[in-house]
Amino acid sequence: MDFIDLKTQYAVLKDEIDRRIRGVLEHGQYIMGPEVAELEDVLARFAGARHCVTVASGTEALLIALMALDVKPGDEIITSPFTFIATAEVMLLLGAKPVFVDIEPDTCNMDVRQVEAAITPRTRALMPVSLYGQPCDMDELDAIARRHGLVVIEDAAQSFGAEYKGRKSGHLSAIGCTSFFPSKPLGCYGDGGALFTDDDAIAQAAREIRVHGQSSRYHHTRLGVGGRMDTLQCAVVLAKFGRFEWEVARRLAIGERYNRLLDQAGIPRVTVRPDRTSVFAQYTVLVNDRARVQEGLKAAGVPTAVHYPVPIPLQPAYRLVGAEQQFPHAVQAAQRVISLPMHADLSDSAQDAIVEALVHQLS
Questions:
Q1: Pairwise CA distance, residues 269 & 208, whole Å
Q2: Residue 313 and residue 321: Cα distance in Å, rounded?
Q3: What integer is the mean pLDDT of 82-109?
Q4: How confident is the model over 202-213, as pLDDT tens digits?
Q5: What φ, ψ does residue 318 adopt, rounded to 5°?
Q6: Is the bond into 308 cis (omega within 30 degrees of 0)?
Q7: What pLDDT, in 10s, does the model give residues 294-342?
């Protein structure tokens, strides 16, 4: 059993993926080839955004978003302590300070009720994370940002394809950033990402930053990075996009079936709010004695993963004194979360076997 089954997906899409890759090999424009602009147009229309700027990775999307806002050393960005390290990493790379607020224990997303108290005169932006595929309370965050003259950047690396009150994740705030890492709901075969915005100036800045700050060839108007998404990776995402809406529907259905089976068994899980959807980049439950449960599931042929075992404020490179007391829900989640196999081609029989094995381990 695969945790994420990319082999079956490739088998279904093989002809289109091969055709798209062959097209790049034939025209030879491996950097900023025509597939780059084509993908940006497709994704912008899907998200409902005026602009999509493809970049080298989801991490690069976050970094470029902050650079486009001219974030400076000493600026503060409010975010979640329970996410992949890249969310805070990009802030520190620019000399900014991540300011963490604890998570909601049921969704594992940032607790928006704690955000306003964390704002200081140095706060520049809010960066919520749409963890496990479910958007945060974005309307509330946008309202807070308007009151304080801040910008909201949605870290939608795990949630592209999800909806919040009928709007697409990635286009729920001033800037949305996503990832096309292979395991994401819409993934390429390497690294890739995208930034979404309706703001013309931010989009232009992002386009220049991703090519070393160039406004035209060898004319550098701002500090930049080598942040382009390869043409080949854009071609792969274009090939996969034709199946993407079907895959999102399948993820919703599989997630709902997991919910029913686990609720019947009384197994705690990450919940999804009724006004939004999750694309279940990870389907996550909460268990005690996680190491034992994982070993038992492994013996039963069920792969698992932990997203994430250590909150960012407890990581050696980021450690904050007293973090255990400041972020108790994040600490508890990090000790209990375990992700189960989830992908669009997961069969009912495989899902039944996963839940049966989990129930056995917890009984």
A1: 42
A2: 8
A3: 97
A4: 999 999 999 999
A5: -125, 0
A6: yes
A7: 999 999 999 999 999 999 999 999 988 788 999 999 999 999 999 999 9
Contact criterion met (CB below 8 Å) for 162 and 278: yes
CATH architecture of 6-100+108-237: 3-Layer(aba) Sandwich (3.40)
Residue 197: which residues within 8 A CB-CB, separation 6 or more?
Answer: 49, 50, 51, 53, 174, 175, 176, 203, 206
Contact 43, 194 (CB under 8 A): yes
In the chain, where the domains are located: 6-100+108-237, 243-362
Under 8 Å between Cβ of 33 and 27: yes
On the question of a common fold for 6-100+108-237 and 243-362, the answer reads: no
Decide: 158 and 184 in contact? Cβ < 8 Å: yes
Q: What is the CATH number of domain 243-362?
A: 3.90.1150.10
**Among 32, 162, 66, residue whose Cα is nearest residue 109:** 162
CA 144 to chain centre: 22
Going by C-alpha positions, the residue among 129, 209, 126 that lies closest to residue 169 is 129
- What are the two backbone dihedrals, phi and then psi, of residue 43, each rounded to the nearest 5 degrees? -70, -40
Residue type at 181 in one-letter notation: F
Tell whether the model's pLDDT for residue 277 goes beyond 80: yes
pLDDT value of position 90 = 98
Q: Is the pTM of this model over 0.85?
A: yes
